[in-house]
Design a protein that fits this description.
Distance between the termini: 28 Å
Number of helices: 10
Radius of gyration: 19 Å
Structural class: mainly alpha
Helix content: 55-70%
Strand content: under 5%
Length: 171
């Protein structure tokens, strides 16, 4: 059940659809064990995962969700270009560094400084509370290293997906 909630949330309609999909597959079979691997296999996990979800989970320092998101995103690199992701992640942490240095901490101040809607400022405020300036700078280095590996500037034996998963682990 926890896997369903983590993957789908509290949308009962979506939950109902995903359970029906699994039941259809196992229709007529007895003694079926429904473990988390089976759920991951059948539940459509990647439909809501994007760089904004990833940044939000990283900003919350929710490692488990961030890993789940990057894992699903890397299953479809055509829609989630690793180089594009590093650009957006770098921009996110660069913005956090700028806000930290200027001591901008409240939603209204963040919204004004970034010229964004106050609702969007919540993501930054949460991340500002979760990270020190030195940790933000370290994360910018991790992103730069991943970017160089993805571009072939720094030699690595890791594929794109492994580089991105390692990056999220480091962040």
């Amino acid at each position: 059940l926890l896997v369903f909630v983590q993957s789908i949330g509290n949308n009962l309609h979506l939950l109902d659809n995903e359970i029906k999909k699994i039941l259809l597959h196992f229709n007529g079979r007895e003694n079926v064990v429904l473990d988390k691997e089976t759920i991951y296999e059948f539940v459509s996990l990647d439909k809501d995962y994007n760089v904004f979800e990833l940044m939000e989970r990283l900003g919350e320092r929710n490692a488990a969700q961030a890993h789940r998101i990057i894992h699903q995103m890397m299953r479809n690199v055509k829609d989630h270009s690793p180089m594009g992701l590093t650009v957006q992640l770098f921009s996110f942490y660069q913005t956090l560094a700028m806000l930290k240095q200027q001591r901008v901490e409240k939603e209204k101040e963040v919204a004004e400084a970034l010229k964004i809607h106050p609702f969007l400022a919540k993501r930054y405020v949460t991340a500002l509370k979760a990270y020190s300036l030195s940790r933000i700078c370290q994360n910018l280095e991790y992103i730069s290293e991943a970017d160089m590996a993805l571009k072939g500037i720094t030699p690595t034996r890791l594929g794109e997906a492994a580089v991105m998963k390692t990056l999220v682990y480091n962040l």
